[in-house]
Amino acid sequence: MASGESELAAGPYRAAPSCVVPHAVSRLRTQRLARSTRPFLARGGPKGERCEGCRLRPSHCICAVRPQLATRSGVCLLMHDAEPLKPSNTGWLIADVVQDTWAFGWSRTEVNERLLALLDEPQWEPVVVFPGEFVNEPRTVLQALPPTCDGGERSVRRPLFVLLDATWSEARKMFRKSPYLDRFPVLSLHPEQVSNYRLRRSSRGDHFCTSEVASLCLELAHETAASSVMADWLDVFTHHYLQARNQLPADWLGDAHRHLSLSLHAAKA
Predict the structure, then answer these.
(1) Considering only CA atoms, which of 143, 161, 148 is closest in space to residue 97?
(2) Contacts of 93 (CB under 8 A, 6+ apart)
(3) C or N terminus of the chain, fewer CB within 10 Å?
(4) Looking at residue 42, what is its pLDDT?
(5) pLDDT, greater one: 256 or 15
(6) pLDDT for 38
(7) Residue 236: is its pLDDT beyond 70?
(8) CB under 8 Å to 62, separation ≥6 — which residues?
(9) Is the peptide bond before 12 cis (omega within 30 degrees of 0)?
């Protein structure tokens, strides 16, 4: 739920490598573009070609090292209208990593029937991830996952983390105006670290980008290796994004790629 400036998708886009299968956010972006009546340009105007698979310039494409993990946890992204179009959106990175990721466009007046069906699937235990300080009684606010899905002996369902992917002001509006989520408990995270997100400006260090929130959720679900992969994938994406922005080559042997390689090895061990 990153707070920051508006940025819309740049074009033209180059087709992703054939080995990269479009994931939930990629498909949502395609649907969103199909409804558009004007081209979407990133802040500052056209930036040249971008890869359809990772949204980076072809010279800095990371599709070849994209990780994807089969996790016990799932992620349901509710995305504000422009988020799937932003090159800096990090919900995309969640769909890169977590195999069971769904993405739905948010609307104040309409609810996607597929979203409602997902929330009602018996294998899932949905929890809405949002700061507890903004939740009104009598709604339940959790500091940990319910025993029914926490991975312990009493677990009978899988955690489904519902994340509101938007700027902070937009996310608060979405939370208030999504009554179909009111029946689910709110999971309030209290991490000790500050956000390392560098692609959009925020005045507060405790405003985390969406993929950072997903990493914290996976850690809470005792999926430590997947949590590390998520965090390291954000670092790799950030490195390539900023290097491309500054017209510098990517460092494929640097710390970001080295940490990702170690995390993937641990996840597959």
Answers:
(1) 161
(2) 211, 230, 233, 234, 237
(3) C
(4) 52
(5) 256
(6) 62
(7) yes
(8) 54, 56, 236, 237, 240
(9) yes
Q: How far apart are CA 187 and CA 203, in angstroms?
A: 23
Q: What CA–CA distance (Å, rounded) separates 156 from 267?
A: 23
pLDDT of 115 strictly over 60: yes
Indicate the length of the chain as a whole number. 269
Q: Which two tokens stand for residue 240?
A: 């390539």
Residue with tokens 């959720």: 217
How far apart, in Å, are the Cα atoms of 66 and each of 9, 225, 252? 21, 16, 13
Place of tokens 């408990």: 185
- Beta bridge pairs of residue 98: 69
pLDDT, mean over the chain? 87
Q: How far apart are CA 219 and CA 143, in angstroms?
A: 13
Instruction: For residues 56 and 65, give the distance between their C-alpha atoms in angstroms, rounded to a whole number.
Output: 13
The answer to pTM > 0.85 is yes
The percentage of residues in the chain with a pLDDT greater than 90, rounded to a whole number, is 72
CA–CA separation, 161 vs 176, rounded Å? 18
Between CA 25 and CA 13 the distance in angstroms is 16
Distances (CA, A) of 168 to 80, 87, 230: 11, 18, 21
CA–CA separation, 217 vs 215, rounded Å? 5
The neighbouring-strand residues paired with 79 are 105, 165
Distance CA 202, CA 177 (A): 24
At position 65, the amino acid (one-letter code) is: V
Task: Kindly tell me the sign of the dihedral angle through the C-alpha atoms of 2, 170, 94, 220.
Answer: positive
- 41 pLDDT above the threshold of 60: no
Residues 191-211 have pLDDT tens digits of 665 455 555 554 444 568 999
Give the 3-state secondary structure of residue 162.
Answer: strand
Three-state secondary structure call for residue 205: coil
Q: Which two tokens stand for residue 120?
A: 């009602």
